[in-house]
Amino acid sequence: MTHPALTISRILHAGYVFACGGTRIAFDPIFENPFSRNCHAFPAVRFDVDNIRAQRFDAVFISHFHDDHCSLDSLDLLDRATPLYIYCQFGVLLDWVRQLGFTSVTPLALNEPVGVGPFQVIPREAMDADVDSMFQVRAAGLNVLNVVDSWIDDGTLAQLVEEGPWDMVLWPFQTMREIEVLAPSRFTAAPPALPEEWIPQLRALAPRYVVPSSCQFKQEPWSWYNRAFFPISYARFTEEVTKALPAATVVRLDPSVSVTLDAVSLRPAPPLDWVIPVGAQDVDYVYEGNAAAPHTSEIARHFGALTAQQQARVFDYCRSELPAKYGAVEASSDYFDQPRTWLLTLYDHAGAATHFRYRLEPGGPATLDDGAGPPGWTTAIPAAKLWAALEEGESLTSVYLRVNDPISDSMGGTGFDAATESELAEADVVDDPLIRCLFSDTFGAYQAAQLRRLLACPAA
């Protein structure tokens, strides 16, 4: 007896192709390696760009605006008649996509189904509904939940349980230590265990198959983040989920791999021929806590020298734009409710330091300070990465910014005094003045930079 079937193929990270009855739809397609500047496919792949340009999808769904899910460089490879459905609270992103020439760009609304051939795709509410969404996909009598990389609150979980039974759940199996790596000396090395809410949520959903989804990348080969950023291995996820859900099967889908799902089985299907595996694919993550983080001066040596114009842009920002902007970006903790001295250190391609000292007044602009007193906050960053954040929209997770390193060269290896240390213990790392000035009030800087480049140099 032949059962109606659905074919699911992994592209990369949270990217998938679903096929049923001659209709193909894609989710969060990324056709770049690396993507988001320093996310290198893990396991490694390359993309057949000419083949991708020849693909025709009946629709593309994008779960949220983060550049590892919505990249204009990847969308630029698609036929402009492709219907795009995007969940985003910022209409400007849809306008940018239209400027690329796409003729059908539709905002998604939570719980409102979209029909595409045999598919019904329903955006579901994530914990941070201002940013994320999840996708419920129905086709061929099957029910698949694509959690993307969001978290699920109790209300949505109850709704999803009512929407069951679930044939497959694509579950974001990695947690990411984006904040801990900014201040590695100030965080303990979390154990490599699944968050405590995951297993009860998966038990409540009770799927037949669980796919460890999202992630599938590492940073640059030399990066210490590769041992500190991702705590959970494929092996650990499989072990814990299999033990907790003995009726479910954990299925790893590497880039290009396809499976055909029906009511009674899951079987291999021909891989995507435009996603080409490179080297070993049966690789896994290794976690070593804070992994002896190298000094920022050493990290900076991995990046090329700035041109004179680029260096001038960075220095002008530090001398003029940043001090003026500081008073307009608020901190979430009260550490900066009193005057502080802030030391910002930039390291060039040779590891040489340039220091900027500021006096920070509550509610006011920052002022350059030539004093010699000890700082109450320190920030270090490679100069090349500050330029990339300013001009290319590079995100906080890839600029190798370091906050309040107590043994930094800029402090002479002495660290903070006891009183300052006591106060810093209550401060939030993301209250860092540079983080606030660069990232707190910006949207889509990465895609905006992509759009400028793509419109300036349109494809032949």
From TrEMBL:
Gene3D superfamilies the UniProt entry points to: Ribonuclease Z/Hydroxyacylglutathione hydrolase-like (3.60.15.10)
Matches recorded under InterPro entries: RibonucZ/Hydroxyglut_hydro (IPR036866)
Protein name as annotated: MBL fold metallo-hydrolase
